[in-house]
Amino acid sequence: MINRVPAYLAGALVAVLTLGTLIVVALRAEAGSGLSGADWAAVRFTVMQAFVSAFLSIVLAIPVARALARRRFWGRRVLITLLGAPFILPVIVAVLGLLAVFGRNGIMNDLLGALGLPEMSIYGFHGVVLAHVFFNLPLAARFLLQGWLAIPAERFRMAASLNAPVGRLLERPMLRTVVPGAFLVIFLICLTSFAVALTLGGGPRATTVELAIYQAVRFDFDLGRAALLACVQFGICAAAALIAWQVTAVDGFGAGLDRVVQRWDGSRVFDGLWIAFAAVFLLIPLGMVVVKGAPGLLTLPDSIWAAAGRSVMIAVISAALTVTMALALALHGGRLVAVISVLPLAASGLVVGTGLFLIVFPFVRPADLALPVTIVVNATLALPFAVRSISPAVQTVRSDYGRLMDHLGIVGWARLRFVVLPRLRQPLGFAMGLAAALSMGDLGVIALFADEQNATLPLAMYRLMGSYQMEAAAGAGLLLVALSLLLFWLCDRGGRAGADL
Amino acid sequence: MLTFENVTLTQGDFALTADIAIDEGVTAVIGPSGGGKSTLLSAVAGFLEPQSGRVLCNDQDLTGLAPGKRPVSMLFQDNNLFPHLTVLQNVGMGMRPDLRLKTGDEQTILHALTQVGLAGYADRKPAALSGGQQSRVALARVLVADRPLVLLDEPFAALGPALKDEMLTLVRDVLVKAGKTVVMVTHDPQDARAVADRVVLVADGDASAPVATQAIFDDPPAALRAYLG
């Protein structure tokens, strides 16, 4: 009833970017010498930091989620909304916030110094893990909170009246089903978070595979080795994604986390402490972004404003592309679409970028294509989230109005314009906002392609940090986070306002 | 005239046969739930192709015709209106599914709205209407659709008894007067008594030939007696 060509085009684009670039990379990989000792160290580091990050995120999230599930307090809704924020927060901005707290001149070292304790360093293994926990503890808490709230209130009432141990009877079985999925999702995220490794890692002992790819392309210009490393990265991600695919069906964006179940167990004090810990751990770095950034905001160099303009343009175009592709795929539906729309989850931006670099390099200067390539890659990487938010709504339209539309003969363009688009406004707006914010904050493929002239805001900010212009970097960071949130808010708002449901 | 010619309908394990002809006026389809009343209507509307046999409307074979191309208007149990479109647009969908209304079309729509008692409501959205008024909008759409056969799959079931009677009277006064053949599914014998000229009993996997309403309730066949209790 609706033209299928757009879905085929979207599917083909995703296939070319994920599988096509992989083939290019595989063909170009110089396997002759095999992986060097440094390469193996990178593989070990990548897997190890992802494992520890995911483990700590989950372990810390369990008491936080339990406290949120059973306590009612002022600001609970705001805190839960805030737990969703790190997902759309540009990584580099969060890193800046963490540096302000845990960095050399940060709050933490001021405290340690005042107590006469030795200085701590945020760079290296524990810095990467710290940043990953900062991002993923909230995500894990939301996953687990959903698990807790899925336990019917009657069960808790029953357990209380029987004086049965709630933990063993209700909570542990729930955790057994939710934790493996949440762990794997976070593990996968930590495998592919290039920006964290770029800013806090580095050196022989803290280099991820993605970082090694970046260095091979940018510094050594050893494309054969970059290609080989890209194959390794893909292998790691694909293995993790395959396991995750088997285990999970969890979804961190679900609504309805506002409910509190009446409970008769647990300590108010401990729950309060855990909630306070989560709030402080999240809010202080975010607050520091504002505190440190505000003074620099007025004195930003022109190049930063230009980079901001490029970033907004990239974000808007790539978000529009994401939503268009997601809509085409969701309307088509079916098994192949389900596969196509999770493929990008296993793809790493750096692997895709390396493949594209190898394709275009013989013909044009990669820097000339930095912006279009970034648009297309960002659009593809955000696709899984967009499809996930649009697909259920497409199903609802089909089951509610499919027969009526067939019956009245509403087909083709009229079906899209008068029924599908108006009915999907909310998820489309949300998906568009999400894609725009993700693209806005992306620091991945652009780092491979861009030169001085065409940096995006996150890249320009990274360069400021690299040259120790911390005040300007902080100003740029505040601008970046403000623009990301503004884009998300505008799109999401646009989808909700005046929607007749 | 709606004709079922040796029709067999199957849905999973369920099978229904029909070899009957239905004349103009109002025909009620009654029978136990799960007996196949809605299945019979689905075959006419084009949502279910018969396993064998064919369905004809005024001697036109409907086999293979897309639902939107059939000379049939249908009201479903729910979701008969698009909540995001105005009353005018919802009714307009009955004439032009692409909403490219030509000169005079709007006049026709407003006239239909007046006929169902909704003059002045054209610019509202369904959420601003009562349940009964929403049903009237759907009836106005049937009026402008200009298709000779009307199928009602219990669209008024959610309304209270008084409102339902009002709607059935409206169906009688407006649709039948406009020369349409109305086939309505109902589980309430009262509905059939109120407006139907004839009754088709669907039970035990078979649709039996229409019988005059008065006659069938005066001397119900065994299957109907079992249903009425």
Outline the structure in words:
The complex is a heterodimer of chains A (501) and B (229). With 501 residues, chain A is mainly alpha-helical. In chain A, helix 1 (5-28) packs across helix 11 and helix 19 runs antiparallel to helix 22. Helix content of chain A is 77%, strand content 0%. The radius of gyration of chain A is 23 Å and the shape is globular. Chain A folds into two domains: 1-31 and 300-501, MetI-like (MetI-like fold, Orthogonal Bundle), CATH 1.10.3720; 46-206 and 224-294, MetI-like fold (Orthogonal Bundle), CATH 1.10.3720.10. Chain A starts with a helix and ends in a 5-residue tail after the last helix. With 229 residues, chain B is an alpha/beta fold. In chain B, a hairpin with a 2-residue loop joins strand 10 (198-203) and strand 11. In chain B, helix 3 (105-115) packs across helix 4. Chain B is globular, with a radius of gyration of 18 Å. Chain B starts with a strand and ends with a helix. Chains A and B meet through helix 17 and helix 18 of A and loops of B.
The low-pLDDT segments of chain A are 250-255
Instruction: Please state the average pLDDT score of chain B.
Output: 91
Largest sheet of chain A: none
Question: What amount of the residues of chain A lies in strands?
Answer: under 5%
Name the average pLDDT of chain A: 86
- The oligomeric status of these chains comes to heterodimer
Question: Largest chain-chain contact?
Answer: A-B, 19 and 26 residues
Number of helices of chain A: 22
Structural class of chain B: alpha/beta
Quote the distance from N terminus to C terminus of chain B: 32 Å
What profile does the largest beta sheet of chain B have? Answer: 12 strands, mixed
CATH architecture group name of the largest domain in chain A: Orthogonal Bundle
Percent of residues in helices of chain A: over 70%
Please count the beta strands of chain B (DSSP E, at least 2 residues each).
Answer: 12
β-strand percent of chain B reads 15-25%
Shape label of chain A: globular
Estimated radius of gyration of chain B: 18 Å
The CATH topology of the largest domain in chain A is MetI-like fold
Structural class of chain A, please? mainly alpha
The H-and-E topology of chain B, N to C, reads as: EEEEHEEEHHHEHEHEEEHH
